[in-house]
Amino acid sequence: MAMNVENKTAIITGAGSGINFAMRSFCCNVVIADLMLRPEAQALISEYPLESKGAKAVFQKTDVTDWAQLETMFEIATKHFGGADIVCPGAGVYEPLWSNFWIPPGTGTSKDTIEGSRYAVLDINVTHPIRVTQMAISHFLKRNKPGVIVHISSVGGQAPNFPTPIYVATKHAINGFVRSLYRLEDPPVHIPKIRVNAVAPARILTPLWTDNPEKMAMVMKDNPGWVTPEDVALVMLDLVEKEEHVGGTILEVGATVSRVETFNDGGPASRGNGVKNDPDYEKDMWSMMEKIAAEK
Questions:
Q1: Which CATH number goes with the domain that contains 96?
Q2: Which Gene Ontology molecular function entries are recorded, alphabetically (predicted)?
Q3: Could you say which DSSP state residue 261 is in?
C-alpha cells in the first residue's frame, strides 16, 4: 500500500528540529507538534502559512506526555487540511539528566519524583508513540482512508548501551510494537489499509546531541559516526512510498541502509552501523555507583 506523499498531510511530533524537521519537507501539508520551534522551523512556518497556495505548515505547541494535547494535533489537521494521511510520532529523548537511570528519582538533576511513580523518558519515548498510533488508527478508520505511521526507533533497539539502559529499553519496545502491527496492512476488505513501520538510525547529528555537552562527551572523538537528519528522512520517505516496505518493516540507517530482521539478525555492527562510546564516559556511571555505595 505504497502512498505517494504529494498532496498529503502529515502530523509529526518533535518536528521543531532534527530528523522530524527534515521529514516535514516531503509532505504537502504538515502539522508540526512540538514544545518549541528552532529558527529553521520558525522560518518554515513563515514561508508556508495557512493563507498560502500549495504546501502549508502549521505549528501546534504540544507536550507529548499530555494525551489531550495529542488529540488536539488531529483536530488541527482536520480543521485546516481535512485530516492526516501520514503520522510520525517522532518526539523522543536520549536519556537526559532529568530522567536518567543513573540519577534515581528524587536525587541530583532528576525531575522524576518518587511521588510521581513514573519516568518521563518512558512517557515520551514509549507511551507517547503508542498512544499516537492508537489515535492515528482511529483517525484513518473514521476517514475511511488508508494511512501510514512511521516510528523512529534506533540501533539501540538491538544493541545494548551501558550509559543509557532506559533509552535502549524504549527502542526495543518500539521495535516489538511496530512488528506486532504488521497485519494492519492486510485487513478485511471493508477496512482501510494502514501501514506501520519504523526507521532505526545510528548516531544522528541533531540538536539532541550538539546542544547537550553531557551527550557530546559520550561521542568518540576520532570516529563519531554521524548520520545526518536528511539521510534518515529520505529513508522515512521510502517507508511511506515504496511498495516493498510493508507493515512491520524496520530500516536501519547508518553507513548502510538495511532491513532489520525479526530473527537471526546480525545486529548493527554486522552492517557497519555500530555506535561506539568514548571509553572515558562510562567512568561517570561507575562514579555514581561508588557514591551510592559510600552512603551505606
A1: 3.40.50.720
A2: oxidoreductase activity, acting on the CH-OH group of donors, NAD or NADP as acceptor
A3: P
What is the chain's Cα-based Rg? 19
pLDDT at 8: 93
Interatomic CA distance for residues 206 and 167, integer angstroms: 17
Angle, helix 165-180 to helix 128-143, in steps of 10 degrees: 20
**Cα–Cα distance measured from residue 270 to residue 147, given in angstroms and rounded to the nearest whole number:** 33
Range of the domain at 17: 9-294
Q: What distance lies between CA 51 and its chain's CA centroid? A: 30
Q: What is the pLDDT of residue 211?
A: 62
Which single residue is written with the C-alpha cell 503520522? Answer: 87
Strands laid side by side in the 194-201 sheet: 56-61, 29-34, 9-13, 86-89, 147-152, 194-201, 250-253, 257-259
**CA angle, 223 then 225 then 228, to 5°:** 145
Tell me if 149 sits within 8 A of 194, measured CB to CB.
yes
243-270 pLDDT, tens digit each: 999 999 999 998 889 999 999 999 998 9
